[in-house]
Design goal:
Elements lengths: L12 E2 L6 H10 L3 H8 L3 H4 L6 H14 L5 E2 L2 H10 L11 H16 L1 E2 L17 E2 L1 H6 L1 E9 L5 E8 L2 E3 L6 E3 H9 L2 E3 L5 E3 L4 E3 L1 E9 L4 E5 L2 E4 L2 E4 L3 E3 L5 E2 L13 E2 L1 E8 L6 E7 L6 E5 L2 E5 L9 E6 L1
Parallel strand pairs: 1-2, 7-13, 8-16
Antiparallel strand pairs: 3-4, 5-6, 5-12, 9-12, 10-11, 13-23, 14-15, 17-18, 19-20, 19-23, 20-21, 21-22
Helix pairs in contact: 1-6, 4-5, 4-6
Length: 324
């Protein structure tokens, strides 16, 4: 309800429009990223706005402004939800949706609305929902990283490099009750052997061969988002992994997964978390966000906002992790 003044800008709840907790959690996390907030609140986005695809970014800017004015305890995201639903009717349905899929959708829409052409090489993404790196925007500047897959033919030992952009890294979860984020990262970046139907075509041999593949980070984004793959499908059987994943609030070091050319600052601090509680078809999303003005952590559960201690940020329900 919009009754009392919000005690601080950026601590504004979002009304649930009917099974839209997934959207509210994602919007709270995005609206807690300092450079993204500054970009929209300062009006810089207007100079990059595309006439054809600009409605989504304009609606996002309006919502973000309402959330940061500090006038209300709660606002409605209905206008943004309606605009996005025109391009993506799936999210207009009042049914359970996946927060990670919605996140990629929003990032892609904002990129389309704010992109500028560049002469950079075009690459495609097979994991995590990348955007076209031949065009730049505030989204690519903040969220886009680059992987390189080193593929070595086991017959002739020829090695080729395959670049791939990403905005979200989907990390596998080891089969155990408790693990760390580093364990998930090691699983993602471990060397893999491709055989049988997964063989790759070797240009030197001229035919499909067994190969060894290993990924490394060649460009780290300013904001890196990890998607913890809690939902898995095995045939018709679907399940949610309840593994307790321990993740650091600060000093996350990504340098072990970088290439030799990796010279960027690889130290990250946690800035937001999307949580998922419940089952696959009857779950609920909430968010934890670190307020960059107060330095404190807050819980966002649709319209409800509450300050929480640092010790409460670590949970076994984390689904998406935002590091800056």
């Amino acid at each position: 309800m919009e009754e009392e003044n919000s005690p601080c800008p950026g601590l504004t709840g979002l009304r649930n429009l009917g099974n839209t907790c997934y959207m509210n959690a994602i919007l709270q996390c995005l609206c807690s990223v300092p450079p993204l907030v500054e970009y929209f609140l300062s009006g810089k986005y207007r100079g990059a706005l595309q006439t054809k695809n600009g409605t989504s970014a304009s609606a996002f800017a309006c919502l973000l402004s309402n959330m940061w004015l500090g006038e209300f305890d709660c606002v409605s995201p209905e206008a943004f939800h309606s605009v996005l639903g025109i391009q993506h009717p799936t999210f207009c349905k009042w049914t359970q949706q996946d927060a990670q899929e919605f996140l990629i959708c929003v990032l892609n829409e904002l990129h389309r609305a704010l992109k500028k052409s560049s002469k950079r090489q075009r690459v495609t993404s097979a994991k995590g929902g990348g955007v076209n790196v031949s065009e730049t925007s505030i989204i690519t500047q903040l969220f886009q990283g680059q992987l390189s897959y080193s593929i070595t033919c086991q017959e002739c030992e020829t090695t080729t490099e395959k670049p791939e952009s990403f905005t979200v890294l989907s990390l596998p979860i080891p089969s155990r009750s408790v693990c760390s984020l580093q364990d998930c990262l090691k699983c993602f970046f471990q060397q893999d052997t491709l055989t049988s139907t997964n063989q790759v075509h070797c240009s030197s041999c001229g035919k499909n061969q067994d190969a060894v593949v290993k990924a490394t980070i060649t460009k780290a984004p300013k904001i890196i988002i990890f998607h913890l793959k809690r939902f898995e499908c095995q045939g018709k059987h679907k399940q949610k992994l309840g593994t307790d994943i321990r993740y650091p609030l600060s000093k996350l070091d990504l340098s072990p997964y970088g290439s030799r050319l990796f010279r960027e600052d690889a130290q990250y601090s946690l800035c937001a978390v999307v949580n998922h509680t419940g089952l696959l078809d009857s779950g609920h999303y909430t968010a934890f966000c670190k307020h960059f003005l107060t330095g404190s952590w807050y819980s966002f559960d649709d319209a409800r906002v509450a300050k929480i201690p640092n010790s409460s940020v670590q949970t076994d329900t984390a689904y998406l992790l935002f590091y800056q």
